Amino acid sequence: MEEARERDAAGLPYVVVYWPAGREAPLEVRLVSWRDHYVGLWAYDAQGRGTYELDLRLLDDPTRLWPRRTVRWHYTGPEMTEFDEACPRITVELFPGGKGRRTERPQGERGRIHVTVPRSRDDERWVDRPVFGEWPLLSAQVHGLTEPLVFEVIEPATAAADGSVLAPTTCRRPPRPAQPGPIGELFRPGVRVTDGYHPEMTIVEPRRIGTLRVPSGLLAVSGPDIDHEDGPHLTVPVPPGEYALEEARARHSYHCMWEGSQVTHTDTMAVRVLVSEAPATSWRMALRPDDDLRLFVEDQVSGFVTDGATGCFADAGAWEPLLALFDKGLIQGDPDLDPDAYEDISDSMYLLRTRDQTSGGELVAFATTGDGTYPVWVGRSQAGEVVAVVVLVEGMPELLPDDGATTSA
Fold first, then answer.
1. Which domain holds residue 47?
2. Cα 22 from Cα 17, distance rounded (Å)
3. Separation CA 107–CA 86 (nearest Å)
4. Is the per-residue pLDDT at 162 higher than 70?
5. Taking the model in full, what pTM does it have?
6. Do 69 and 103 belong together in one domain?
7. 138 with 22, same domain?
């Protein structure tokens, strides 16, 4: 108990498990990790099935917790397994500023869903932060429990690869946003990867596709194909200058049924703006102005949004005229555009370049493999300076064991 109290005061993670007398399964489990701004609560029924999950976040007010997400499962009978796809459930997600979503699945994943907006003010959504040892039991409210409980404190015992501490297997660790993966390896010739479809692919020399001028010192990364009343989705400060544009590519061979023989093909895995030749020692996901990592759920991404399978790198200082040229050239197909202001790019994931004649700033659009949200990864040197900005045009591939032939880039 004292050790848990010390961990609580230091912000270190710990787990509390509540067991009613004579019960084989836990009634409630709580994972507290103040350093991660997180408290997770899970309630279980007599069969050990998860019935309720509450995700609480510690934001700017140290006396209150924000109920970020709640999920409740309504099992239709004792024979239904835990988290069965047919199990009815209700999920409520809340965001500061009055935003939120309530999703009801009366027949689980197999049926229709009903989505509404939770109607409550921000000041009605907060939960008081209990002092150590005085946490109210969520399960008492869920199950109407009245019998006395005993609880035991369990120290998370395993360390993850990134140094974070994991809870026992019955619990989850504090949620983490999407992680970058081995992005730098995609630009190292000889590295072997798989994308899940091709068993083995080999990274080849990055392909350089011209340069990008950013005289304003603010690099925009955005989808150019949607309404941008508030400007680009993301911006990254860089020194004013002209930077190389590159593609990370991987080669693979397969049997082509049409040709009746083995063929070799090279796919683009990622595009990047190379700001410096210095190696990147860390990668972070670029955030939009309203993003708060303290509210992210497991593997959540932030990035630019496209509904036309297109992204772009651009000089944010000339965003509006550059976007207007993009619209006239690619969308409207204006044949009278000045060739110095608009240029098509062939045989590349990069599609076109527009140039603002007044500032000299440029926009280069590139293709993605689909619509949706694409995270933007910013690589920094040991000194903390931006050295590269990368977008994966598809998902992150998995590294294969080194066969000894890898060369350094």
1. 2-166
2. 15
3. 5
4. no
5. 0.85
6. yes
7. yes
The number of CA neighbours under 13 Å toward the Cβ of 220 is 26
Phi, psi of 184 (to 5 degrees): -60, -30
Total domains, the chain: 2
In a domain, 408, yes or no: no
Minimum mean pLDDT among 160-174, 191-205, 234-248, 297-311: which range? 160-174
Q: What is the pLDDT of residues 54-91, one digit of tens each?
A: 999 999 999 999 999 999 999 999 999 999 999 999 99
Domain contains 307: yes
Same domain, residue pair 187 and 162:
no
Residue from 277, 309, 294 nearest 374 by CA? 309
Burial of 22 (0-12, 13-18, 19+ CB in 10 A): exposed
Say what the pLDDT of residue 233 is: 93
Give the model's pLDDT for residue 141.
66
Q: How many residues does the chain have?
A: 409
Q: Within 10 A of 151 (CB to CB), how many other CB atoms are there?
A: 19
Check whether residue 160 and residue 201 sit in a common domain.
no
Of the ranges 128-137, 188-197, 271-280, 398-407, which one carries the lowest mean pLDDT score?
398-407
Q: Which amino acid is at 91?
A: T
Does residue 174 sit within a domain? no
Q: Determine, yes or no, domain membership for 327.
A: yes
Q: Residue 222 — φ and ψ, nearest 5°?
A: -160, 170
Inform me whether the pLDDT recorded for 261 exceeds 80.
no
Give the mean pLDDT of 46-53. Answer: 91
